[in-house]
Amino acid sequence: MDFRPLVAYFLVAAAVKDLTFSTDTKFGKTVQVLIKGGDISNYFIKPTRTVPFLLSAFIGENGMGVIYAIVSLTLGLIILPPLGLLNILSFLVFLIFAFVVSVCFNLLIGMLSFYFTEADGFRNAINHVIKILSGALIPLNLFPFWMKGVILLLPFPALVFTPTYVLQNTLSLNELSSFFVTTLVWSIILVIITRHLWRYSLKHYEGVGI
Question: Is residue 145 part of a domain?
């Protein structure tokens, strides 16, 4: 990769991960703290859906991060403008997918505190894996061909690499279809798993709301 596309990649990638709260799993950390301290019981007794309420509150508290993300995305687009309308539309679609996958990962990480007293170690380990395999630290194009092919079959690239790649590169129909199917399948799988484990965890959660 040349210097200019590389700089543009990291600017857009930084914007994607900040807009979707993916690589640092800060929302997952927030959920862990609430569960560990027993404060999450206060949200269960409120007449509202817990996860959307917590997510909305988290997004509101991290508004500056969204502003920085927009600035970073703008700079990335200036350095390397999109090749066409298809790239922009594809980016928006895969950004939504990235948000869905990110929320699932964050909730799965947060739910570790239902079962482990100290879950920070698990969260840190998963964060490192996500940062590498999502393309946040190293563009997946720089990986060996066979390794890149394997990683692209996992859900992690959907968090950063896929939205960034479809915005900055010429897309063939086969390539775009492959990205779409893989990301869609993983999004559905993760949503189902997350919903099931959340409901299962709540049934076995013992806490008192005040």
Answer: yes
Q: Residue 207: which pLDDT band, with cuts at 50, 70 and 90?
A: low
Indicate whether 82 belongs to any domain.
yes
Longest CA–CA separation in the chain, Å = 57
Collapsing DSSP states into helix, strand and coil, what is residue 90?
A: helix
DSSP H or E segment with residue 187: helix 173-203
In this structure, is residue 208 part of a structural domain?
Answer: no
Number of structural domains (the chain) is 1
Alpha-carbon distance of 59 to 106, in angstroms, equals 13
The gap from C-alpha 121 to its chain's centroid, in whole angstroms, comes to 19
Q: What residue numbers bound the domain in which 198 lies?
A: 3-203
CA distances from 91 to 37, 123, 157 (A): 38, 28, 13
Quick: pLDDT tens for 162-187: 999 999 988 888 999 999 999 999 99
Listing DSSP states for 110-123 in one string gives HGGGGT-S--HHHH
Q: How many CB atoms lie within 10 A of CB 78?
A: 10
Predicted confidence at residue 82, as pLDDT, reads 85
Q: Which residues contact 210 (CB under 8 A, 6 or more apart)?
A: 41, 42
Residue 210 lies in a domain: no
Give first-to-last CA distance, the chain, whole Å: 56
Report the alpha-carbon distance of residue 25 to residue 17 in Å, rounded: 10
